[in-house]
Protein: Ribose-5-phosphate isomerase A
Organism: Pedobacter albus
Amino acid sequence: MAAATLNNRNLAKQLAAQEAVKLVKNNDIVGLGTGSTARFALMALAERLKEGLQIRGVPSSLATEAQAKALGIPLLPLGEVAQIDISIDGADEFNEELQLIKGGGGALFREKIVASLSKNRVVVVDSSKKVAQLGAFKVPVELVPVACRYVLDQFEALGGQAQLRYKNDALFITDNQNYIADVDFGLIANPEELAIQLNQIEGVLAHGLFIGLATKVIMATGEGLLVFEQSQKGS
Ligand SMILES: O=C(CO)[C@H](O)[C@H](O)COP(=O)(O)O
């Protein structure tokens, strides 16, 4: 994509992604995130491959797999990888504890596996994603269809208002053949506690609260880059 055609927000996403890709080293196994910001990282990685960098990527969705293949990025299947050196992914919200909400693109389960396998988990965002408290963005939850009614009732019991996600007038189906519910819990006072509660619901495959799954957030603003790291307020 030519820089001249990018709006400010996309430029910020691209800047953050390019900065993250500088952290990739030769022979790394790289977790490839999903979404528009992660896609800029794929493009920056493809540029580095042309310069001689050797890596293998692990895609976090079928969409990312297709994009990476089109860019000539060598891939390993997620299910066969024991460890990932560095992953680069976007987020829908993050706070200063580097807790995230992810899953706007519906790839949260595989993104969580990629992040869990990764030694370095780098999140790339524009400044619209930074919040004081998580929860303005509804929490995406991937659920197994046969458990749908039960799971939606459990969200309600936890104080959440859930809506099943639709795309083009049909229920959104994930890469794993499941549904996504977008659950409004209001501003979330205790994300760790809610994450545990959601994990305990039978029929939930994964939820979009990513706790302890980011080591660094690279955020591009109009003024430049801000880097947030674990136990650090920003630099
Ligand atoms: O979690 C995700 C997909 O499931 C994305 O990382 C998240 O939605 C951010 O997307 P974008 O970079 O397009 O704003």
